[in-house]
Amino acid sequence: ERMQQRIGDRVASLDELQALAPNLERVAIVVAWFGTDLRCGECRVMPGIDNRVKATHGGTWTVAGVDRASAYLVSTVDGRPAFGGTPSDSSVRNLIAELKARGLKITLYPFLMMDIPADNALADPWTGASSQAAYPWRGRITCDPAPGQSGSPDGTRAAATQVNAFFSGGADEWNYRNMVLHYASLAVEAGGVDGFLIGSELKSLTRVRSASGVYPAVDARVTLAADVKTIVGSGTLVTYGADCTEYGAHVVDS
Q: SS3 helix, strand, coil % of the chain, rounded to 5?
């Protein structure tokens, strides 16, 4: 009965949306995973839950093969979850199917939230402080130390090592690339989508250099976009949501 109610809520919400916006043509599905560190070489990217013991009816929460018992638990503020959890893979597939049945175009948007609580003990790559700012913008992810800071690897091969760890490193494979590829495959399983974003606003990461004029995060995104395109096919637009500052030239002293 509760599952029928949840299905009804989803349908009712979309009914109301289309009633309010009768010329609606496209819907974006934003699905969040969580980053754990502003230092790109240390940052893990993984799905998360807001409650370890939440009761569900008619379905079991799983994302990328992880169940509720073993999933990452988001931090809390005043005893409450700082974020809602990642929606289950089955719920995303069902939503895609419902939108397609209504003739709506779909953009699937894997989204990175930074789950860094106020009581963290993570070194700040921007200031050298012993703690990073609470719940920062993903646009602050960078190498450690950040460009312009004393001892920064910016402009060296070490910077590429850190950047590549963010995209494809980690013994447990919880990295940015696997998040994006997971949803590219899910989109195909669900019958396909019209648009797919490989991310957005990684403005500080894209300005890290491994040598003069060489930007490893840009290269990693180009490769990721091509791999996503291979999965989703020529009928799906693959793009990146740039921060406005990423459109300008990167002018440095050397």
A: 35, 20, 45
